[in-house]
Design a protein that fits this description.
Chain lengths: 306, 328, 328
C-alpha cells in the first residue's frame, strides 16, 4: 500500500480532527480569515473610500446607523463627524490594526528566534546576557515597554520625522515588547538539540554543526512558536489599539481601530454612540477570534493534554 | 537565610541603578534642556552660562552621581510643561493612583483566585465553562474599551456613577484620600472595576492551569491511593502547591496594574500618575517621564523583592539545610 | 485454594475509548492472591501490568475504564463501589507504592504531616497517638533518628530513604494488600536489594499480601511466591515462581528467561525474541504472541488460548491443550 500523501496525513491528524470537532474554533478561524481578507482587499470591497477627501460631504456627518429613524441606507453603520461611512472606516482601520499586529509579531519572531538560536548555540556569557535581559524584560508588562519606547521615540525625534515613521515606531515598540517569549522557547529547543550526538558527528565529518542544528531545531520548535505567535498577535493588536487610543500610536492619517475609538469617544456623551461602539465591537471580535484560535492551538499541540 | 536576603537586596540595588541609568540618559540626552529653558532668543554667552550653572559640562559620571543623589532626596527637576517641581506633581498624584491600584488588585485577587480554584477543581460543570468563556472574552477586551462601555452604561444611560474625576477627597498629612467620602467612593467604582478586569481574568486562568497541573502530579495520585478525603486532597495538598507559583506571578501582575492604570486614568480622567505620564509623553515633558520611569522601576524592584522573600518563606525547598542531608 | 483469597480478579477488562476505536489495555485476565502471598506481575512496558494495579486500587485515569469482569477484596466486590466507599478501601485495605519516590511525596509538607494525615483519615486515634505511630513506622522502615526526621521535608532525604518513607505511608493504615508498581526501578542498583528486602519483610510482619508489578525478573525471583507473566494485556502464564522461572512453559516466558544473561556462562550472542510486543491497536488474531512464536501452529493464529492447568501453573498456550501437542 502506498504511503499516504502529506495532505492526507494532515487531514487525518489529531490536530485537524480536534479542529473540526470544535465549532467555536472553526468560527474563530473563519472570522479571522474574513478580517484578513477584508483588510487585504479593503479598497475594492468597501462601499466608500473614506479617506478620499473629494468624496466626503459634510452634510452626511453624524448620520446614525441605517436601522434607526434618521438613518439612511447609504451608511449602514452610520457616518462620523466628517461624513465618512463608519463601516468603511472600520474595514480600513482593521487593515491598519492587522498590519501593525502582523508586522510586530513577525519582527518579534525574527529577533526572538535569532537571539534564541544564538544564545542556545553559543552559550557562555552571550547566553547569560541575552537570557538575563529577556528575564528582566519579562517582569515588565509588555504594554509599558511599548509605551516607553514609543514615548522615547516621540521625544527624541523631531516632530515631522516622527509623524512620518510613527507607524514603524509602533511596530518596533510592540515587537520589542514581544521577543523574549520567542527567544526563551527557541533557546530551550536549541539546548536540547545541542546535546544530541548528531551535532558531534557533524563536527567529525567536517560539516558546520550550526547549520545542521538549524535544520533540526526549526521543525521541532515551530509548534510552540506558532502558538506564541498567535497569542502574541492578539496582544499586539490590543497593544496597538491601546497606544492609538492614548494618542501615542499610529499617526492620525492612517487611523486604526484604536484611533477610531478614540475619536468616537469624544462624541459619546452627545449621543453619537455608533462612532465608538462599532469600531469597538470590531476590535473585540477580531481579538477574541485570534485568542480563541491561539488557545485552541496551544491545547491541540500540547502533548501532555492528549 | 540572611545570605539569601542580602543577595536579593544587592540584586535589587543593581537593577535600580540600571533603571536610574536609563532614566538619567533620557533626562540628559533627549532634547536639549538648555534650549527649552532659554526659549527663542539667547546669546552664546547666556547659553554657556546656563550650561555651567546646570552643571551640564561636568563629566558623565559626575552628572549621573548627582542625578542619583538628587533622586534619592526626591529632587527630580522641573516639569517643562507645568513649570512646577516634578516631585511636587508626583506627590499630588501618587495617592490617587495608589488607591485605585490597590482597590483593583484586591478585587482581582479576591475574585480571581477563588474562580480559578473552582474552575480547576470542577472542570466540567457549566459554571466552570461559563467562567472560562468570560475569562477568554476578558483577555480580549482592551481595558480602555471596558472603561468606555462601563461609562456608557452606568454614567450615560443609568446616570448612577460619575464618569470622570475622583469625587471629593479628604486631605491629611501629605495624602489625599477618596475613601472617606461617598462621592469619592462612587467615583472609585468604575475605574477600579475597569482596571481589575484584565488582571482578574489572567489570575483566574493562571490559578486554574496551575491547579490542573498539580492535580496531575504523582503526589496527588499517591494521596488518592492512600484514601485521603477529597477535601484534604483538593484544599490541603493541591491548593497549597498551586498557590506557591501563583504568588510569584501575581506579584508580577501588580506590574500590569500599574501599566494599565495609565489607560484607566486616561479614560476616566482620574488625576493620578498615569494620566500625568501620558500627558508628559504627548508634550515631550522629559523630566516627568524620567521621574515616572524611576518611580515605576522602584515599585517593580520592591515588588520583586517582596515576592522573592515570600517565595522563600512558603517553599521549604529553598531553605536548604546544608547539614541535614542524610545517607541511605 | 484452601484459604479464601484476599484478592480475586475475574475476567478483568480495561478499555480506553479513543477516536480511532477502543483500545484494550487489559484483556480478560483472571488471577487471585492469597493472604500474605507475594504475587509478581511481570512483563514488558505496555503489557498492561500497571493498568491492572491501577484497576485494583480504583485509580484508572479517564477516559480509561473498567469495561468488564470483577475485582473482589476478601469476597467483597470493589470494582463497582461508589467513590466514597472506594476511598475508604484505599489506604485502609489496599495500599500502594509507586515508582518514583521523589514525585510521590508532596514537597511542601513534612513527612510527619503526610504520615499522621493518612493515619488519622483511616484509624480512630488521637493526634498524639497518630504521631507516635508515625514515628514507629519510620523506625520500622529503617530511618535513623526517626523522632527528629519526622519533621523534615521530602527533599531532605536521599532517594532510598524517600522510598522507605513511601513504604511507611503505604503501610500506615495497616492494609491487607499492597500494590507495588515498579518500587525499585527509579533507585540506585545498590539500594534496590535493600528496599525489596524491606518490602518483603514488612509485609510479612504486617500480614499484608503484595502485588509486585515489575519488568525485572531478578526482583521477582528474589521476592515473589507466585508470578504472572503478562503479554499484550493478557496473562501468558501464572504459577509458582520456581516453576515459571526454572521450567517456563509458555514460549514467551521461555524466551524471557533465555534472554537473561547468566553469570558464569559465556555466550556468543544474547538470546532475543524476534519482533516486538504488538501495539494496543494492532493485536493479532488468536494468540497475541503467535507472530513471534517459534512453535506456533494454525490453531494459534485462529483462536485465542484460554489458561490451561499444567502442573501447578496456568498457561495460556495451545501447546498444552490435551488434544494437541501435549505437555513437554
Amino acid at each position: 500500500m502506498a504511503a499516504p500523501s502529506a495532505l492526507a496525513r494532515m487531514l487525518d491528524s489529531d490536530v485537524y480532527h480536534s479542529f473540526r470537532r470544535n465549532p467555536v474554533v472553526v468560527v474563530s478561524a473563519v472570522v479571522t480569515a474574513t478580517f484578513v481578507l477584508a483588510a487585504l482587499f479593503a479598497p475594492w470591497i468597501t462601499p466608500y473610500l473614506p479617506y478620499d477627501l473629494a468624496s466626503l460631504d459634510l452634510n452626511d456627518a453624524f448620520t446614525p446607523p441605517a436601522w434607526t429613524e434618521e438613518g439612511s441606507r447609504r451608511f449602514l453603520l452610520g457616518a462620523d463627524d466628517q461624513g465618512r461611512d463608519v463601516l468603511s472606516t472600520i474595514v480600513f482601520g482593521a487593515r491598519v490594526s492587522l498590519l501593525v499586529g502582523f508586522c510586530a509579531v513577525l519582527f518579534a519572531m525574527t529577533v526572538g528566534i535569532t537571539l534564541g538560536l544564538v544564545s542556545g548555540y553559543v552559550g557562555g556569557t552571550v547566553e547569560s546576557v541575552i537570557m538575563r535581559v529577556a528575564d528582566v524584560q519579562l517582569t515588565f508588562p509588555g504594554i509599558l515597554i511599548a509605551l516607553l519606547i514609543d514615548g522615547l521615540a516621540r521625544t527624541a525625534l523631531p516632530r515631522d520625522l516622527h509623524s512620518e515613521i510613527a507607524l514603524y515606531v509602533v511596530i518596533f515598540a510592540i515587537g520589542i515588547a514581544n521577543w523574549p517569549q520567542f527567544a526563551r522557547t527557541v533557546r530551550g529547543s536549541t539546548l536540547v538539540e545541542k546535546s544530541k550526538e548528531y551535532v558531534q558527528a557533524a563536527r567529525v565529518i567536517g560539516l558546520h554543526p550550526g547549520l545542521i542544528m538549524l535544520r533540526h531545531v526549526l521543525p521541532n520548535v515551530m509548534g510552540p512558536v506558532l502558538v506564541i505567535a498567535t497569542l502574541s498577535l492578539g496582544f499586539a493588536i490590543l497593544a496597538e489599539a491601546t497606544l492609538s487610543f492614548l494618542g501615542v500610536g499610529v499617526p492620525p492619517t492612517r487611523p486604526s481601530l484604536g484611533t477610531l475609538i478614540r475619536v468616537g469617544n469624544d462624541f459619546l456623551f452627545s449621543g453619537e454612540w455608533w462612532m465608538t461602539i462599532f469600531p469597538g465591537a470590531a476590535l473585540i471580535v477580531l481579538v477574541l477570534a485570534v485568542n480563541l484560535l491561539g488557545d485552541w492551538l496551544r491545547d491541540a499541540l500540547n502533548p501532555k493534554l492528549r | 537565610m540572611i545570605a539569601f536576603v542580602v543577595q536579593r537586596l544587592l540584586q535589587s540595588v543593581l537593577v535600580m541603578l540600571a533603571v536610574a541609568f536609563i532614566s538619567f540618559a533620557l533626562f540628559r540626552y533627549i532634547g536639549d534642556p538648555v534650549l527649552i529653558m532659554l526659549g527663542q532668543d539667547f546669546t552664546r554667552e547666556q547659553y554657556e552660562m546656563l550650561v555651567r550653572d546646570l552643571g551640564l559640562d561636568q563629566p558623565f559620571y559626575v552628572q549621573f552621581a548627582k542625578f542619583v543623589v538628587s533622586a534619592i532626596q526626591g529632587e527630580f527637576g522641573i516639569s517643562y510643561r507645568l513649570a512646577r517641581p516634578v516631585a511636587q506633581l508626583i506627590a499630588e498624584r501618587l495617592p490617587a493612583t495608589l488607591e485605585l491600584s490597590t482597590m483593583a488588585a484586591l478585587l482581582a485577587l479576591s475574585i480571581g483566585v477563588p474562580m480559578g480554584v473552582y474552575t480547576g477543581l470542577r472542570r466540567d460543570s457549566w459554571l466552570s465553562r461559563f467562567f472560562l468563556t468570560i475569562s477568554l472574552v476578558g483577555v480580549s477586551l482592551p481595558t480602555f474599551l471596558i472603561g468606555i462601555l462601563l461609562i456608557l452604561v452606568f454614567a450615560v444611560q443609568l446616570g448612577v456613577l460619575p464618569s470622570f474625576g475622583r469625587g471629593d477627597v479628604v486631605k491629611f498629612g501629605g495624602w489625599s484620600t477618596g475613601f472617606l467620602t461617598a462621592s469619592g467612593l462612587k467615583a472609585l467604582v468604575l475605574p477600579a472595576v475597569t482596571l481589575c478586569l484584565f488582571q482578574l481574568t489572567l489570575i483566574m486562568r493562571l490559578v486554574r492551569s496551575e491547579m490542573l497541573e498539580v492535580l496531575r502530579t504523582d503526589y496527588i495520585k499517591f494521596a488518592r491511593a492512600r484514601g485521603l478525603h477529597n477535601r484534604a486532597i483538593n484544599f490541603g495538598h493541591a491548593l497549597k502547591n498551586t498557590l506557591v507559583p501563583v504568588i510569584t506571578i501575581t506579584g508580577l501582575q501588580i506590574g500590569g496594574i500599574i501599566a494599565f492604570a495609565i489607560v484607566t486614568e486616561t479614560v476616566f480622567q482620574w488625576p493620578g500618575m498615569g494620566l500625568l505620564f501620558i500627558q508628559s509623553v504627548n508634550n515631550a515633558d522629559v523630566p516627568v517621564m524620567a521621574a515616572y520611569l524611576l518611580l515605576v522601576g522602584f515599585f517593580f524592584v520592591v515588588i520583586n523583592l517582596v515576592v522573592d522573600l515570600l517565595y522563600y518563606v512558603v517553599d521549604p525547598r529553598l531553605r536548604i539545610d546544608r547539614g541535614a542531608a542524610s545517607g541511605h | 485454594m484452601a484459604e479464601a483469597s484476599i484478592l480475586e480478579v475475574k475476567n478483568l477488562r480495561v478499555e480506553f475509548p479513543t477516536r480511532r476505536g477502543n483500545l484494550v489495555a487489559v484483556d480478560d485476565i483472571s488471577f487471585s492472591i492469597a493472604p500474605g502471598e507475594v504475587l509478581g506481575v511481570v512483563g514488558e512496558s505496555g503489557a498492561g501490568k500497571s493498568m491492572t494495579g491501577a484497576a485494583v486500587i480504583g485509580l484508572i485515569e479517564p477516559p480509561g475504564r473498567i469495561a468488564g469482569g470483577s475485582i473482589s477484596l476478601s469476597g467483597r466486590r470493589i470494582d463497582d463501589l461508589p467513590y466514597e466507599e472506594m476511598r475508604k478501601v484505599r489506604g485502609r485495605e489496599i495500599g500502594a507504592i509507586f515508582q518514583d519516590p521523589l514525585t510521590s511525596l508532596n514537597p511542601l509538607y513534612t513527612i510527619g504531616r503526610q504520615l499522621t494525615e493518612t493515619i488519622l483519615t483511616h484509624l480512630p486515634v488521637s493526634q498524639a497517638e497518630a504521631q507516635q505511630r508515625a514515628v514507629g513506622l519510620l523506625r520500622e522502615v529503617g530511618i535513623p533518628a526517626a523522632e527528629k526526621r519526622i519533621d523534615h521535608y521530602p527533599h531532605q532525604f536521599s532517594g532510598g530513604m524517600r522510598q522507605r518513607v513511601v513504604i511507611a505511608l503505604a503501610l500506615a493504615a495497616n492494609p491487607k494488600l499492597i500494590i507495588a508498581d515498579e518500587p525499585t526501578t527509579a533507585l540506585d542498583v545498590s539500594i534496590q536489594a535493600q528496599i525489596i528486602a524491606l518490602i518483603k519483610k514488612l509485609c510479612r510482619e504486617h500480614g499484608a499480601a503484595v502485588m509486585l508489578v515489575t519488568h525485572d525478573m531478578g526482583v521477582i525471583a528474589e521476592t515473589a511466591d507466585r508470578v504472572a507473566v503478562m503479554y499484550a494485556g493478557r496473562i501468558a502464564e501464572i504459577g509458582p515462581v520456581r516453576d515459571v522461572i526454572k521450567a517456563a512453559r509458555h514460549p514467551y516466558t521461555d524466551g524471557l528467561m533465555a534472554s537473561i544473561p547468566k553469570v558464569g556462562r559465556t555466550e556468543a550472542r544474547l538470546a532475543q525474541i524476534d519482533g516486538a510486543m504488538p501495539r494496543l491497536n494492532a493485536i493479532p488474531r488468536g494468540c497475541a504472541f503467535n507472530p513471534r512464536c517459534t512453535r506456533a501452529f494454525d490453531r494459534c493464529r485462529a483462536e485465542r488460548p484460554e489458561p490451561m492447568r499444567v502442573g501447578n501453573s496456568d498457561v495460556a498456550c495451545w501447546l498444552y491443550d490435551a488434544g494437541q501437542g501435549g505437555p513437554r
